Amino acid sequence: MSVETQGVPGRIDSFPTAELAGFGVRAGHPMPFGATLVPGGVNFSVYSSGASAVSLVLFRHGEREPFAELPFPGEYRIGGVWAMTVFGLDHEGVEYGYRVTGPENPAPGDRFDPAKILADPYATAMSGRDVWGAEVDWDDPYPYRSVLAAGDFDWEDDRPLRIAPEDLVVYELHVRGFTADPSSGVAAPGTYAGLIEKIPYLKELGVNCVELMPVFEFDEFDMSRVNPVTGERLYNFWGYSTLGFFAPKAGYAATGRYGMQADEFKNLVKELHRAGIAVVLDVVFNHTAEGNENGPTIHFRGLDNGTYYMLTPEGYYYNFSGTGNTFNCNHPVVRDYVLDCLRYWAGEYHIDGFRFDLAAILDRGQDGAPLANPPLIETLAHDPLLRDCLLIAEAWDAGGLYQVGSFPGYQRWSEWNGRYRDALRRFLKGDPGSAGELATRLVGSPDLYASRGTLASVNFVTCHDGFTLADLFAYDGKHNEANGEDNRDGNDDNLSWNCGAEGPTDDPEVLALRGRQARNALLLLLLSQGIPMILAGDEVGRGQQGNNNAYCHDGPLSWFDWSLAGQNGDLLRFVRECVAFRAAHPLVRDRRHPCGDEGAGGLPQVSWHGERAGEPDWSEGSALVAMLRSGTAAGGGPEHLYLAANAHWEARELELPDLPDGAVWHLFADTGAAAPDDVHTPGQEPPLADQRRIVVGPRAAVALVGRAHP
């Protein structure tokens, strides 16, 4: 065909120049990597710098054997990138992979295997695990198949919410576990669609950010054990073993069997945004599902093992993740891969932020040593497309690198503050010497984040990994026998206290104490400076029978029991009011750490007290912390907040600080009081009858607000 039509150059990139396996092909576009639609066909681009040959292998959906295999001509390789455009493909019905042949003399660590068909690391969807828990063909030579997801979703002008970080209340949840229980009453339990039905609950609770445990494609069957107690199959329930970093988990979609998981997840994000709730994804870039030398070959290992993984000089895997391998995040190619992935989720899925599992690994160089200026962390901090995304680091790893307070933040990163968690737990269980550290944590951990501000600290008491809040005060030790590892797995140092009885009990005093302790933890958490995070189910007293590592249980042990919202309605109401109180008072959301400078009415921004006003007790045996914050209220006038926590087994009578300008103390919360008097609706707090002193009950906490009385 002529490239000239009436003197106008024609389009020559829309037509094949050769034929392979019955398909018209031409040299492809090296960038972007992955499979992308182009006029008349699909462009395939894959990186493999050490390969001597690469073939594109094509399948029809559901068929075991490929219908075509197209070797990349040598001239279609530029550098280490193999790119080819294939014309006439039914991109909605095709599944694809790559066959890669390595050099005749492999280097240490090379794991090229032309007998394997490899998934595309950039695949935007994957098939093979389309329905959660459905039996699979264990002899399938290509179990995780790459699919090209359609990009025609109607977002209806949705955009990321850009909620100010100081205004966030984060709610960590598991997509399947949140609605899988029959008590959820949703039409499609355990799915993105099911979660949409629970958005009214989230709004009523008052949280405005959900942190979703992993939703990137993974294989729930990558475990082989059974529950030794019941004989039931154990699953990879949590999903911290990623197969497809660009692909949403099909088994979490009611429409996954139809290949519509991308649209269903996008609809979840859109509906959450419509409700004013931001979406943060828990992402796992520290390791992959390929494991160590004995693990499966899925993609990276067979494409360029020495690029994607940290290897010893002998070619074995460094294991700083504790799961067999360590992703080589600071290699330039892998760094670009992580950046491409996050940009894709931020742009294509409108994600509001990311929490990085075992993020200290992102700080390690290719030999595993911590870097002074880790390029990936810096790149993510300053990337223009990710500018408005919340970046949260779990600032430690399984190799012993603990960086809480020292993670390279670049004035952008926040951290899961493990020291906040530990300080609050120690204080509530009555450990000596814990009062001073709790005080530091309440005001945003200035010892850790003096130059970064309070928003560097994501405060939490519990998370998916460890005891739930109910179990924290019901068990002295872990009870993980059902995991099939003889109770060896899970953390042994939980800083928990069973309040006098291990596990379930009918003792009314023990039950009352456990209820107070849960309220104490939630009140302190939600009135602390920093970004608070609540574990889903803690607000209704969900427990896991003392299992502090329920990663493998897809059942009632891990599922949200919605009947608890009725059974423990008083606790749920307490949390709702605490969340509302936080939203009503800018003082607890201040980006700056308070100091002794004047806050309001002649009072300092923060002051500390004890049984007598102005006389705190920081001694080793102290079990009392009392704090007064003074500053500007939401309406522009002065406000004063008083928080006192008593970890002693006896009540304490506290002298209250004087308030200026005729302000009066009003009672917001008293965890020692019986419901409904344990908490009041913000703005409707009753004035204290005695303005000079207050009694804080044994192992209880109170919160007061000082304002003019009408």
UniProtKB/TrEMBL annotation:
Compositionally skewed regions (Basic and acidic residues) per UniProt: 481-491
Keywords from the UniProt entry: Glycosidase, Hydrolase, Transit peptide
Methyltransferase keyword on record: no
Glycosyl hydrolase family 13 catalytic domain segment(s): 172-582
Enzyme class: hydrolase
Documented EC number(s): 3.2.1.196
Pfam families: Alpha-amylase, CBM_48, ISOA1-3_C
Gene3D superfamilies: Glycosidases, Golgi alpha-mannosidase II, Immunoglobulins
Annotated spans, Disordered: 481-501
A molecular-function term among this protein's GO annotations: limit dextrin alpha-1,6-maltotetraose-hydrolase activity
CDD domains with a match to the protein in the record: AmyAc_Glg_debranch (cd11326), E_set_GDE_N (cd11234)
Family of this protein: Belongs to the glycosyl hydrolase 13 family.
Protein name listed in UniProt: Glycogen debranching protein GlgX
